[in-house]
Amino acid sequence: MKPGIGRPFRYNTKKIFRFEEKFNNHKINPTAENLFGYQEKNQGDGFKSMRSVSVTTMSKRPLTCLHDGCKKSVAVSSLVSHFKHDHGAVPCFGVEKGKELSLLFDVLLVEHDKTFCLAMITVYESNQIDVVRSKSSQSVINTCSKLSGRVPLNTFWLMMSGSTDHRKTTSYAIYWLYSNSEDRYWCTMELSSKNDRISVSSFCSVVGLHESRTVEEVARNMNCLFVSHGSFIALLEEGDKINLRITLH
């Protein structure tokens, strides 16, 4: 059975937080405006209202590598090279935009208060010449066809972070994608049990250069796949290896 939103045995991961209980007790509609105090930040294009400095300024500031306690300061333009040289064990994948990348995930990698890079993903776009509609001469078409193929769009870092809270009732892990680009990207992420009978999924924004990369902020802005402790228990009913699927849009 192909995984997706429509699978009949999808596990419900919605959890009630304390701030939601407060609104429910007072019969107040817990809208984004009521929860967080303003509207713009929660309309899916948060970087316009969250950005206090220009993207140009941000791109000149070094980043702190979050992988497995590295914490090195790395130039934005050198992040790919840093991972290739300092974190060579992190696997690299290439996938076309809109195509699904499927991985096997070992839950033993999940640790409290720790962020881990699961993979570097280079996304490509097809660069093809429409011979039928092209108004160029045949020689130009032939030349361009030789140069056409997969064009790299951007590189993304697939991150996994464990919550600082160790209590089973409130602990969680988040899966999120990071890009050192100022452009806005969207992704679909899904975790499913070994035989795909149970799954959790999320359609969310990729965390960009301008946005906070702290676990709490990524989870609060919902730029991730949020998986509670109870959800992990359900996903592991069919085995200790679960499927992780990512699609960049």
From TrEMBL:
InterPro entries: DUF4729. Pfam families: DUF4729. Residues 65-231 form the DUF4729 domain. This is DUF4729 domain-containing protein. It comes from Asbolus verrucosus.
